[in-house]
Amino acid sequence: MAEQQNWVQLQSDVQPFRDQLAEAAETVVDEGVSNYPLFFAFDGPATDQVPGIFVTDISTRRGTIWHLNLTTLEELVAKTIIPPEKIDPFREVYKKNHNELCFLIVDKEGARFGFIPKD
Question: Domain limits of the chain?
Fold first, then answer.
C-alpha cells in the first residue's frame, strides 16, 4: 500500500517541476546522449551508488524529500540495475509512453517504474 501511495504522491509532488524535468529529459535526447532518459527518484540518503546526475530536491508537506537524478537506460544497464533481458521490454513500454516522463521510484518498499505526463 505504501508503494502505491508514494507513487501517487510523487506524481503530485513533481507537478510544479514538470517543465524543468521535461526540458532536462529533452536535452539528453537532443544532445544524443540517450533516447531513454529517466528520473531516478528516491527519498533516502544520496550515495555514490545512486545513478545519474542531480537535478533537484522536492520537499513535501508530508516530510518526504524526493531527490531526483537524471539518468539513462544505458547507465542503469551498465550499473546492472536493469538486467540485459529487460532492455527490450523496457524500450517497448518507454516508446508507448513517449509523451511522458519516466521515473524509477526507489523507497523502502522497493523499486518500480512509472510515467507522468509532460503536460
Answer: 2-117
Q: Please state the pTM of the whole predicted model.
A: 0.89
Q: How far apart are CA 101 and CA 70, in angstroms?
A: 11
Q: Is the dihedral of CA 84, 88, 92, 95 positive or negative?
A: positive
Q: What is the pLDDT of residues 37-60, one digit of tens each?
A: 999 999 877 777 789 999 999 988
Asked if residue 48 lies in contact with residue 112, where contact means CB atoms within 8 angstroms, the answer is: no
Residues 6 or more apart whose Cβ sits within 8 Å of residue 100: 115, 116, 117, 118
**Is the distance from CB of 38 to CB of 102 less than 8 angstroms?**
yes
User: Any bridge partners for residue 106, and if so which?
Assistant: 42, 111
Q: Where would I find the beta strands (DSSP E) of 3-99?
A: 37-42, 53-59, 65-72
| Closest C-alpha among 79, 14, 85, 70 to residue 37 | 70
